[in-house]
Write a structure and sequence with these properties.
Layout lengths: L6 E7 L4 H11 L7 E7 L4 E7 L2 H4 L2 H5 L5 E7 L14 E5 L2 E11 L2 H10 L9 H11 L5 H11 L2 E8 L4 E5 L8 E5 L2 E5 L3 H6 L2 E5 L4 E6 L2 E6 L8 E2 L1 H6 L5 E2 L2 E2 H15 L6 E4 L5 H11 L7 E3 L15 H8 E3 L1 H4 L3 E6 L6 H12 L4 E6 L21 H4 L2 H8 L3 E4 L2 H8 L6 E2 L1 H4 L26
Parallel strand pairs: 14-23, 17-20, 20-21, 21-22
Antiparallel strand pairs: 1-4, 1-10, 2-3, 2-4, 5-6, 6-7, 7-8, 8-12, 9-10, 9-11, 12-13, 15-16, 18-19
Helix pairs in contact: 4-5, 5-6, 9-10, 9-16
Bound molecules: iron/sulfur cluster (SF4).
Length: 469
């Protein structure tokens, strides 16, 4: 817990209510980004776009959706991983390329965007945002002479990193996933309409059925004749972000055929096998750790209890407390049920530990509520290396496991014991080989090489003119 999600993309092609469906789809993907939201819609002639800072319900209302007519639409919810949180950096990015309207929505991070941008700027390209996504828009513009599909393929061949892209022109939609398949992207059907989403939970909300995942290195092209598959790159070693299963994705989503709740529950079971504890009850940090905690409890034969309650209504405007009032601030977000934990030996399950500060406060909450012992169990391995593929984990200096052993962390968070799920156990829980996933934040082995100086604000210093929140 403590990592910020990346972004979510959603698209509909061939439905009279495309923008409205996209709005509902973005609602289902809100957990992937709360800084800005946007929808671009097309009536087959041009593209109209609306985006703003804030949650989906803050950015859109009935009038704004009705002002987005047409049968195709793409949408985006954003948490900034490249570029600051400005309106100018909200997506979809809408541009005109040699007379053709083009909208782009991107989840992920392009690790060579800075080098490409420098090259393009040296030959006169002018950038409006500090988004890595804009680099792709410029590449498409430069390669337009053989048509938009060819231009997109050539552009994707140049960028490196993690991406799930949706491109929309007035006549077509393109959905592409990077050759390693680091970021997820699924395709569904709603009657004759084709839909795309970062997560399948968004299909459920609109009544669409899942067809399949977009494959690594694949681009699906949709037009009025239906859809077809194009491989713009040879699929590389599969490296799906394992954190989608651990924390990012909603439990009701299925990624590459595996349900996220079931995967987390299995992680909890393997964690109980690897790190048993003598305890009276098991509880999980709400919400993302509940599935793993129930798995732990089931495997250990210890009752699961609701030991912690989360306040779901902490908005972006919540005033962070001063140092003196810090414990008060933690209790606004999370509180312990003293009737449940008083005098008990508690197993506390968390999905991950990043900086260690939040979990230290939670252990303290349980102890203040009268827990006799708190045994911390983490349903993922020690998070030791930063992520460069679209997740905000800052630098390794801020990652507690990068510099401390589990024994030292136990003392820092003042738990009675600590056990992490092993990499082997994590992969076993998912029923696939280690080579199927990106595990870089655990083992430091990056599937796509990271250029020196890569980071969240590598493209800053440009012309951002939006509001900073
Ligand atoms: S480094 Fe970790 S968080 Fe980043 S893509 Fe890989 S598994 Fe996911």
């Amino acid at each position: 817990m403590g990592i910020r999600e990346e972004c979510g993309v959603f698209g509909v092609f061939g439905h009279a209510e495309a923008a409205r469906l996209t709005y509902y789809g973005l609602y289902a993907l809100q957990h992937r980004g709360q800084e800005s939201a946007g929808i671009a819609a097309s009536d087959g002639r041009g593209i109209v776009c609306h985006k703003g800072m804030g949650l989906v319900f803050e950015v859109f209302n009935r009038e704004r959706i009705e002002a987005l007519p047409g049968t195709s639409a793409i949408g985006h919810v954003r948490y900034s991983t490249t570029g600051r949180s400005h309106l100018v950096n909200a997506q979809p990015l809408c541009v005109t390329v040699r007379g053709t309207n083009l909208a782009l929505a991107h989840n992920g991070n392009l690790v060579n965007a800075a080098a490409i941008r420098e090259r393009l700027e040296s030959v006169g390209s002018i950038f409006q945002t500090s988004l890595d996504t804009e680099v792709v828009a410029h590449l498409v513009a430069h390669r337009q002479s053989n048509g938009i599909e060819h231009a997109i393929v050539k552009s994707l061949n140049e960028v490196k990193g993690a991406y799930a892209f949706l491109f929309m022109t007035p006549e077509r939609m393109f959905a592409a996933r990077d050759p390693h398949g680091i970021r997820p992207l699924s395709m569904g059907k709603l009657g004759d309409a084709v839909v795309f989403s970062s997560e399948t939970c968004a299909f459920d909300i609109i009544g669409a059925e899942t067809v399949r995942d977009v494959r690594p290195g694949e681009m699906i092209v949709v037009d009025s004749d239906g859809y077809r598959s194009v491989y713009f790159d040879r699929p590389a070693r599969s490296a799906l972000c394992i954190f989608e299963y651990i924390y990012f994705a909603r439990p009701d989503s299925n990624i590459e055929g595996v349900n996220v709740h079931a995967a987390r529950k299995q992680m909890g079971k393997v964690l109980a096998q690897e790190h048993p504890a003598d305890a009276d009850l098991v509880t999980g940090v709400p919400d993302s750790s509940i599935s793993a905690a129930t798995g732990y409890a089931e495997e250990a034969g210890i009752p699961y209890e609701m030991g912690l309650v989360k306040n779901r209504y902490i908005g972006r405007t919540f005033i962070q407390p001063s140092e003196e009032l810090r414990s008060f601030g933690v209790k606004v977000k999370l509180n312990a049920l003293d009737k449940v934990v008083r005098g008990k030996r508690v197993v506390l399950v968390d999905d991950s530990i990043v900086r260690g500060t939040t979990i230290g406060h939670i252990v303290n909450l349980l102890q203040d509520a009268g827990a006799r012992e708190v045994h911390l169990r983490v349903a993922s391995p020690p998070y030791r290396f930063p992520c460069f593929y679209g997740i905000d984990t800052s630098t390794s200096g801020e990652l507690i496991a990068a510099s401390k052993t589990p024994e030292e962390i136990t003392r820092v968070v003042r738990a009675d014991s600590l056990g992490y799920l092993s990499i082997r156990g994590l992969v076993k829980a998912l029923g696939r080989s280690e080579g199927s996933f990106c595990l870089s934040c655990f083992n430091g082995s990056y599937p796509v090489d990271i250029p020196a100086g890569a980071g969240k604000f590598i493209l800053e210093g440009g012309t951002s003119c939006g509001e900073q929140v």
